Amino acid sequence: MIKSRIAGVGHYVPENVYTNDDLAKLMDTSDEWIKERTGIKERRFATKHKETTTTLGYEASKVALERAGITAEDVDFIIFATLSPDYYFPGCGVLLQRALGITKSEIGALDVRTQCTGFIYALSVADQFIKSGMYKNILVVGAEMHSSGLEFATRGRGVSVIFGDGAGAVVLQPSEGDNGIENSELHSDGTNAEVLSLSSPGSHGGFHSDDKDQFGFPPEDELGEIFITDKMVKDGHLYPHMDGKVVFKKAVVKFPEVIVSSLAKIGKTPADLSLLIPHQANLRISQFVQKILKLDDSQVFNNIQKYGNTTAASIPIALSEAWEQGKVKPNDLICLAAFGSGFTWGSVVLTW
Ligand code: UT7
Q1: What is the CATH number of the domain that holds 80?
Q2: Residue 327 counted as domain residue
Q3: Is the pLDDT of residue 205 over 80?
Q4: Among this protein's residues, is 335 annotated catalytic?
Q5: How much distance in Å is there from the Cα of 193 to the middle of ligand 1?
Q6: Structure confidence by residue, pLDDT tens digits, 8-46
Q7: Domains held by the chain: number
Q8: What would the pLDDT profile of 172-187 be if each residue is shown by its tens digit?
Q9: How far apart are the C-alpha atoms of 1 and 215, rounded to whole Å?
Q10: Domain span at residue 134?
Q11: Active site residue 241
């Protein structure tokens, strides 16, 4: 069967650097706390009213297209993964199509909403379209502008010190040889959907309760208003909510599991990996995974120290940087893996 391959990869991060000390001026936190718990030293934040999730994705796409040796007119499908879109709707896919000036051909544009695993899901979907012969040049983008929706105050410090803005993109094409995507695995478990969530605005009401039914509704006396109310704004329901410890505990189990199982499907083990590019959630998670899988430092790529957690953008940014640094070479066995909100997790194994 025909395989798909990454023909070009690119990334873009905003110019504005915010160090941990900069955040400590806005909330009760410290460089020491952030570095010790997450490994993050600094992150980039986009320029308000000049940049959006789509503009970041656009800049990354231009690089990926150029490196693939094609123009925007050659793109026959767009897949855009983000949890921080420009608008509640429509999605960033059509906004990117417009920005790239490819409206004449009326190609399809799909938005993917699986948060930290967004790029893995997007790449896997693109792989199926290439393998089926439906498309020849798919632009797959992961981009986030978190800074527009974080609470830069002590109440929000458990979340806001972790995230950063940025974008990465790849062009996926049919492979001419044997190299390319070997397989992908996608998983989810919605039991803890609200553990890492932004529930308002939405049809649900944004209740955070441990006592909930199968749809996440709390007991009747805990129900509030739906959509946006002053109380919701005051209570911080318009900011992301995260129980970091619950996410951490699940992540360190599911990351190794999905990496080992996708490698096993092609008769490989972690020892065969040239490079693992894990979603940059927390340096401590990556280090834990590295230890469990007995990988040496040269087999794992991390850049969370510079960019924070950029959710759907973290894997394509890291892939692009690794490629630029000569750490991704022809015939290398690469594994991309992610875990995050949903919970969702997954992996893509490819021969470069
Ligand atoms: O990519 C999406 C998936 N997300 C993740 O993978 C995140 C996974 N989880 C984590 O990375 C960690 O749980 C965090 C880094 C988010 C938090 O680390 P933690 O060791 O789990 O800390 P915690 O939330 O249990 O908080 C410990 C203490 C608390 O104080 P008390 O109650 O012990 O007095 C917090 O209030 O640290 C306090 N704290 C802070 N202190 C300074 C929380 N955030 C901060 C902060 N600065 N930014």
Answers
A1: 3.40.47.10
A2: no
A3: no
A4: no
A5: 19
A6: 999 999 999 999 999 999 999 999 999 999 999 999 999
A7: 1
A8: 999 999 999 999 999 9
A9: 41
A10: 4-177
A11: no
